[in-house]
Amino acid sequence: MKDANIQHLIDKFNAGQLTTAEQDELEQLIESGRIDLDRFEKLSDVDAKVQRIEFPEPTSELDDRFYQMLALQKKQTARSFSWANLFSWPELAPKLAFASVALVMGIAIGYLVKPSSSASTEYQALTVQVTQLREMMMFSLLEKESATDRLKAVGLTQKMETVSTKVTSALIQTLNNDENVNVRLAALDALIPYVKDVSVRTELIRSVSRQDSPLVQVALAELMAEIQEKKSIKELQKIIQSERTPADVKNRIQKSIKALS
Fold first, then answer.
1. How far is residue 82 from each of residues 74, 86, 97, measured CA to CA in Å?
2. H-assigned helices in the chain
3. Contacts of residue 139, Cβ cutoff 8 Å, sequence gap at least 6
4. Is the whole-model pTM more than 0.85?
5. How many angstroms separate the CA atoms of 158 and 144, rounded?
């Protein structure tokens, strides 16, 4: 394959636009040693995201992007309306959640603009409801066949004030089992803010040996080095000892192990 075609594949990967066939082709090129892993932006993002771990503060402003998504959803519904789809739960759940979030956020704004000694308490309660509705949307989208929908599901966690163990467990399952490398990398990124949780760290260590993608293996190794999780060394060494692991990947993981030693 020509260098221009290889770069095209890398650019599509960095943009999250790879098809399943292109993804397989890219993995084969990595395993053959024809691609330097330093050319992948998503892997270098892990370090940056670890450095800026923080939790969002509640805000009284409406989320403009939410209303843009809501408007787009309404247009799509108008174009493809059918009574069968209307009462089909996989189709109904995201629409119901969007509408419910809009209603709850509208009520929250009403409480915020109306002076009240209990406004803060009411807002916090409504924020919890919004988070729960976003969780419902997330679980619904994770069941979709489209990788784009599953990426949206993972992205919803960034809008949650706090996440439940159900959400982190779903992200771990996605990291371990999703067939799309981009979705798995997105799930790993989404878990970074919660690496201080012992249960999350434990599951991330277990995930190391379950990965067959060189890109995810390296991303996990570099995350383990960043958070100084020495318990992961044994699992990382298994990857190095495997005959199936490309030389470039072994070198990158060896550097992570040295950083942990």
1. 14, 6, 19
2. 3-14, 20-31, 41-51, 64-79, 83-86, 89-113, 119-142, 147-155, 165-177, 181-191, 198-208, 214-226, 233-241, 247-260
3. 153, 170
4. no
5. 19
Over residues 94-130, the pLDDT tens digits come to 555 555 555 555 555 555 555 555 556 665 666 667 7
* Residue 32 exposure: Cα atoms within 13 Å on the Cβ side: 9
Q: Residues with Cβ < 8 Å from 159, sequence gap 6 or more? A: 63, 66, 134
**Residue 33 and residue 39: Cα distance in Å, rounded?**
13
Query: What is the domain partition of the chain in residue ranges?
Result: 3-39, 40-55+162-261, 57-161
Structure tokens at 163: 């996440």
Please state, in angstroms and as integers, the Cα–Cα distance from residue 128 to each residue in 132, 187, 190, 206, following that order.
6, 22, 19, 31
CA distance 230 to 234: 9
Tokens for 46, please give them.
């892990």
